[in-house]
């Protein structure tokens, strides 16, 4: 059974900022001669890893809103620079915008059932409202959209 994950994008200001950070990481991997793969390193391996890679996505919470998702490609075990076990969440580089949903801060990650996951946003970047996505999210949070 598929399950998703949500995580705070700490220090990220927007979807474009997240895309820039990830593009920079991929470019650094290419320069080092590594196979470019988008890996988000975390301390613990998710207990439901098999369900995540079975069609799940990582939903990023940016500035108080779930805004975008990335499909899981795989989950790899490893060791960090201090010799401690770590885990790499391997993500598809494609950022799929979702319908903005307000979310309170939390630490670590949380599982997200398929039924509770925000739906993908309409193809127009502004959600079809003719305004910036951040403004649309604020108006939606106020119940005005």
Descriptors:
145 residues, 3 helices, Archaeosine Trna-guanine Transglycosylase, Chain: A, domain 4, alpha+beta
Architecture blueprint of SSEs:
Blueprint: E1 4-8, H1 15-31, E2 38-42, H2 49-52, E3 57-62, E4 65-79, E5 85-91, E6 96-102, E7 109-112, H3 133-141
Parallel strand pairs: 1-3
Antiparallel strand pairs: 1-7, 2-5, 3-4, 4-5, 4-6
Number of domains: 1
Total beta strands:
7
Gap from first CA to last CA: 33 Å
What portion of residues belong to β-strands? Answer: 25-35%
Oligomer: single chain
Using the CA coordinates, give the radius of gyration.
Answer: 16 Å
Overall shape: it is: globular
Low-confidence stretches: none
Instruction: Determine the structural class based on helices, strands and strand pairing.
Output: alpha+beta
Order of helices and strands: EHEHEEEEEH
At CATH level 2, the architecture is Roll
The tally of helices reads: 3
Write a brief structural summary.
The chain contains 3 helices and 7 strands. It is an alpha+beta fold and 145 residues long.
Walk me through what this model shows.
With 145 residues, the chain is of the alpha+beta class. It has one domain: Archaeosine Trna-guanine Transglycosylase, Chain: A, domain 4 (Roll), CATH 2.30.130. It contains three helices and seven strands. Strands 1, 2, 3, 4, 5, 6 and 7 form a seven-stranded mixed sheet that branches. The radius of gyration is 16 Å and the shape is globular. The N and C termini lie far apart (33 Å). The model has no long low-confidence stretch (mean pLDDT 89).
């Amino acid at each position: 059974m598929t399950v998703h994950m949500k995580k705070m994008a700490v220090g990220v200001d927007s979807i474009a900022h997240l895309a820039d950070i990830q593009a920079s990481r991929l470019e650094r991997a290419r320069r080092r001669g590594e196979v470019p793969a988008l890996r988000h390193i975390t301390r613990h391996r998710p207990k439901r890893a098999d369900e995540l890679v079975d069609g799940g996505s990582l939903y990023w919470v940016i500035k108080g809103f779930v805004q975008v998702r990335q499909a899981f490609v795989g989950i790899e075990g490893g060791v960090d620079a201090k010799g401690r076990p770590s885990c790499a969440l391997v993500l598809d580089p494609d950022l799929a915008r979702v319908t903005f949903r307000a979310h309170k801060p939390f630490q670590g990650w949380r599982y997200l059932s398929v039924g509770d996951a925000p739906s993908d946003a309409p193809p127009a970047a502004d959600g079809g409202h003719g305004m910036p996505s951040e403004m649309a999210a604020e108006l939606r949070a106020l119940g005005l959209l």
